[in-house]
């Protein structure tokens, strides 16, 4: 089977020596949102139906 790879925009991160839990959570949320956007913009490339969503567990 062919493998389809897509790349999203870089997520800029400032180095924080001792990040707070909130800083980590906010960056994680930003990353997950970027993954959702990437999936939504490219799911047709893999014949994924429009109604299909991405789920994180």
Automatic annotation (TrEMBL):
An annotated Gene Ontology molecular function: O-acyltransferase activity
> Which biological process annotations from GO are given for this protein?
lipid metabolic process
Q: Which Pfam families match?
A: DAGAT
Record keywords, A-Z: Acyltransferase, Endoplasmic reticulum, Lipid biosynthesis, Lipid metabolism, Membrane, Transferase, Transmembrane, Transmembrane helix
Q: Where does it live in the cell?
A: Endoplasmic reticulum membrane
Gene Ontology terms: cellular component = endoplasmic reticulum membrane
Q: Does the keyword Transcription apply?
A: no
Key word Ribonucleoprotein present: no
User: What superkingdom heads the lineage?
Assistant: Eukaryota
Bilayer topology reads: Multi-pass membrane protein
Name the family the entry cites.
Belongs to the diacylglycerol acyltransferase family.
Name it: Uncharacterized protein
Q: Which organism does this record belong to?
A: Pristionchus pacificus
Q: What is the lineage of its organism?
A: Eukaryota, Metazoa, Ecdysozoa, Nematoda, Chromadorea
Name of encoding gene: WBGene00273626
């Amino acid at each position: 089977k062919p493998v389809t790879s897509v790349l999203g925009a870089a997520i800029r991160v400032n180095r924080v020596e001792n990040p707070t839990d909130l800083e980590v959570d906010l960056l994680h949320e930003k990353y997950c949102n970027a993954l959702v956007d990437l999936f939504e913009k490219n799911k047709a490339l893999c014949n994924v139906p429009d109604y299909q969503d991405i789920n994180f567990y």
